[in-house]
User: Fold these one by one.
Assistant:
Number 1:
Amino acid sequence: MPCCGQCAGIEKEFNAKIAARELAAYRRRGVRGTTKALIALLQQARVDGATLLDIGGGVGAIQHELAAAGIGQITSVDAAPAYLEAQKAEASRRGYAGRVTHLHGDFVAIGEQIPAHDIVTLDRVICCYPDMRALVERSAERARRVFGAVYPRGTWWNVVGIALVNTLMRLRRSPFRTYVHPPGQIERILGAHGLRLTAAKETLIWRVAVYAR
């Protein structure tokens, strides 16, 4: 499945070297930071036997941790092939590879082909996609019960910081860009799809939020 220009940038930025380094760090230290916070909030819902759609899951920390907590079938969609390979390697090492379907591509482009799942997660993914509305709407449509996300807070320092990151990307001739999409707009879109905020935590940079029907 061909990717959009942004997804091509994701493939370049999140390559095999980066994926190997992140997987080694995960194996050494376990899940950390906002990903750990999101998993803790998700585990307050019923995960045993539930299905998971993990969009842009990196090396698969959410998948691995929730699989250990009893989650059932998992679908992983990622624009970075190196991350999918890291996910497969770790799922195989942990003995649950048969429960996971891995799909490479732009979720907005292929999302209609993916069935609804009990839980949908986007950990630091909304900030990597230019068309926030399309991404949030399509992923919300696939969430039967719970929607979990980590995305930047709408602060001035995030806006400035991301502008600097994007300047660096332009200087490096990379098509990859990052975004601070208005959190209020994200929540309004989710609300229009029947998802209401049930739990949230914030750091200086990130908002960790779980929504449910």
Number 2:
Amino acid sequence: MCHAHCSSNRQLWVADESPYKWKSQPCQILFYDRRSDKRYTIASAMPYPNIRRTYQVDTDPHPRFGPDDSCISYTTTVLDNTDLAVTRVEDVLK
């Protein structure tokens, strides 16, 4: 795991795996529920970004919970474009 973030009650975790190996393998967004000890994959194979990373542009996913823990946001490269993705926690836990 590279960048990880937890919900306000510390029971839900989200992280990216791993932008440090991105040139050789796709990056993933992983979700972990400590209450049930279950792991979920939100994004399984994000391709390497098509833009060059600079000190001003960080394309690493950096997944984070929203203020009320109802959603997760992260940078995505799935559609061959660097963009923001939002996933509802409720949908992940289904």
